[in-house]
Amino acid sequence: MSGSSNVGLHIDHNVQEDPEKLAEFEAKIDAGQLIEPDDWLPQAYRTGMLKMAEHHANSEIIGALPEGEWITRAPSLRRKLALTAKVQDEVGHGQMLYRVSQDLGKTRDQMLRDLITGVTKYHNVFNYPAPTWGDIAMIQWLIDGAAIMNQKSLADGAYGPYVRTMKRINMEEAFHFKCGEDMVLTLMSGTAQQRALCQDAFDRWWYPSLMFFGPPDKPNCRNLPPMRWRMKTVTNDDLRQRFINRFAPAAKDLGLKIHVVKKSDDGMVIEKQLDPNLHYDESTENWTVTEPDWEEFYRVIRGGGPCNKQRLGLRRLSYEQGRWVRSAIMNGRVGLPPAA
Amino acid sequence: MSKIREHPPDADGEMTSPKEGDLEAFAVFTQLQRGDPHTYAGCVDAADAKMALQFAREHYGQDQPCVNIWVVPKRAIAATEYDKDLIWRYTDQTYRLARGYAKGVREKWEKIRAKNDLDDYEKEDLKEMF
Fold first, then answer.
1. Interface pTM (ipTM) of the complex?
2. Which of A137, B67, B77, B95 is the most interior residue, by most CB within 10 Å?
3. Which residues in chain A have Cβ-Cβ distances shorter than 8 Å to B34?
């Protein structure tokens, strides 16, 4: 799942790079060549890529938590198997991305610790609650759908190890998305109660999915290092528009209503009205919807979301509990498990 | 022809030079384009990695475009066994693949769209008739 578009890439522009090497590096990127970790990299590129890959890895690990809670409560054996496989995929994505980050110069243990102590962040979207099975369907349909759009654009980037990881991840995301679509379709083809549960979950997740792509574009974003060096290839607003064009009509076909909502501190909808700005513009072929509340976005990033504490608390618990495993491995007291 | 070749030593009898053993086997992985994965190409015997790289360049790097080569001592590679441990189990695992959902998703969409069409038709019908 996840993506890295809303990570702030604070790049130090004061580092003086060798202008000849920098020109060579930029020529490689302009020629569409992939950059490899052993190549000469500008310091700002290395830090920027590390920050992006680490944030992405953190998001995969934290993203598995809300869904993992639902494995024991899945409504059928097939759904349980699928959800288990999905959560396993997400943690696997985290492993691959921590590996990419390690090659950029940070140890895995430091990354795991920085995540827990709040030094580094994870994707904002995982700070929202998943109180029903409908939320699990919506996470897989909307959030994984958004993640595929984002990660497909990241797979066109320039950093080889990250690009290859994105391609691999996107294959698995296709399963998550299809499975989510199947769950939403099942609920919306069901009883009035199932449809209402699905609508409520949709109301909770619609705005977090629009915010998934990060804050509105800065006017010069195409000239800033993340895009100039092809760490990102599509702007946040362009990705968001693609998402709206894909999902607003799909929701309409399914019988889901797009609402502008007001939420309580625990992330539950307390007020809603039909989105008055929802319409299709034939001249631009774009769907228009009401903008997300960007103040909420920044508040949640700063730790004020409904589930920030709970998610990091669970991560800390599992890290502390895993101490004996790490210590056994580091001291070489493990071998292969006995043959089955 | 040199004198010694005209009169080679007797082929029978003990060898005079001692056994040296084999060189080390190195697995060779070649990359055909920057950014591509390295692919297993074969093995070379060499005294060390440097020599193995030199042999690999000649054996595997000259008959096809090749931009990068890795050599790895063959003994350093750990592998699974084909018959003993199956990696892809033979039970139905389509629940973890996108294609496991394709048919069901299509059918459910068709049903929902057919119902939407029917609802639209009935609405229009009501407008016209009454």
1. 0.77
2. A137
3. 33-34, 36, 160
